């Protein structure tokens, strides 16, 4: 080990390496789930200010009230499908603080199929797919893909200003929340959701290339199953114990036999947001307990199993 490597591992150097002291962050979907975890983690790590954007005032306020540093959380009512709403939020951040170092485009909606797709024949598959509502697909895409894209576009000048002010050592970053469903061959009937996340991955890759000359980094957080409003209903039916504890789920669903814990997500976010992750751009970081590593790329749907009950799309199937 070189002298430099040895000194870099000292405690007084490790703390600022993974800390986010002085960081200004903007988080969409900031009131619940991953957004709430991120807001609290960044503040615990020393962030200067965190703006949380969302459509529900009560969720945003609850996120603020539950933080020990509530004075540094600033809720903003915002609809990511509205350019005007996004611009209003951007203008508020500009007036109040003038820049941001991290934009976390995290807002998204799930897709809940009305029934289990019968795959027994081409005819039943066609009948099932023909009943899909195109309007709901358009809304999912509008929020999960176009909403995230427009969020990134709206805050570009504030991210550039963050680089100019250089209050933190790492360059400004856009972080987007995607999903393993956008990278698999498996399907639980959530075709619209999966397509919206796959499209987001492509947009992020191209944004990273366009913004690279301006030193604005773009990365994607590809999430597996974490506790959130999107997944809690399924988890309550599936797990009779804490789903974050190893052994709560069958290894055929998640090789590590549990869902992601808050610590798993917090650790990854702090790494990406801090100086430690400052050399990363154009990357997709997967946090899924090994789901995508199951050959062939999670191609055969294997829902969680508990005591002989199989859960498909939130519906109990006792015929296992």
Automatic annotation (TrEMBL):
Source species, domain of life: Eukaryota
Alphabetical UniProt keywords: NADP, Oxidoreductase
Single GO MF annotation: oxidoreductase activity
InterPro entries registered for this protein in UniProt: NAD(P)-bd_dom_sf, Sc_DH/Rdtase_CS, SDR_fam, Sec_Metab_Biosynth_SDR
Classification via Gene3D superfamilies: NAD(P)-binding Rossmann-like Domain
Family from the record: Belongs to the short-chain dehydrogenases/reductases (SDR) family.
Name recorded for this polypeptide: Uncharacterized protein
């Amino acid at each position: 080990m070189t002298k430099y490597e040895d000194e870099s591992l000292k405690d007084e150097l490790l703390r600022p390496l993974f800390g986010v002291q002085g960081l200004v962050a903007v988080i969409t979907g900031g009131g619940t789930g991953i957004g709430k975890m991120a807001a609290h983690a960044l503040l615990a790590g020393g962030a200067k200010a965190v703006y949380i954007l969302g459509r529900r005032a009560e969720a945003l306020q609850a996120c603020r009230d539950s933080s020990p540093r509530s004075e540094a959380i600033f809720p903003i009512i915002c609809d990511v499908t509205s350019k005007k709403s996004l611009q209003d939020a951007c203008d508020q951040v500009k007036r109040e603080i003038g820049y941001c170092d991290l934009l976390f485009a995290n807002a998204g909606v799930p897709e809940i199929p009305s029934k289990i797709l019968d795959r027994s024949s081409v005819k039943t598959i066609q009948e099932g797919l023909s009943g899909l509502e195109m309007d709901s697909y358009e809304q999912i895409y509008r929020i999960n893909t176009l909403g995230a894209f427009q969020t990134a576009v709206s805050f570009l000048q504030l991210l550039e200003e963050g680089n100019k002010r250089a209050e933190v050592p790492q360059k400004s970053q856009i972080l987007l929340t995607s999903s393993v469903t956008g990278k698999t061959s498996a399907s639980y009937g959530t075709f619209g959701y999966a397509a919206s996340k796959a499209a987001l991955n492509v947009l992020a890759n191209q944004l990273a290339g366009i913004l690279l000359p301006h030193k604005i980094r773009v990365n994607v957080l590809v999430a597996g199953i974490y506790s959130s409003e999107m997944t809690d209903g399924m988890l309550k039916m599936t797990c009779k114990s804490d789903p974050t504890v190893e052994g709560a789920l069958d290894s055929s669903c998640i090789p590590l036999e549990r869902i992601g814990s808050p610590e798993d997500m917090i650790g990854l976010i702090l790494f990406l947001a801090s100086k430690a992750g400052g050399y990363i751009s154009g990357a997709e970081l997967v946090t899924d307990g090994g789901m995508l590593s199951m050959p062939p790329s999670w191609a055969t749907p294997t829902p969680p199993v508990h005591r002989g009950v199989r859960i498909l799309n939130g519906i109990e199937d006792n015929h296992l």
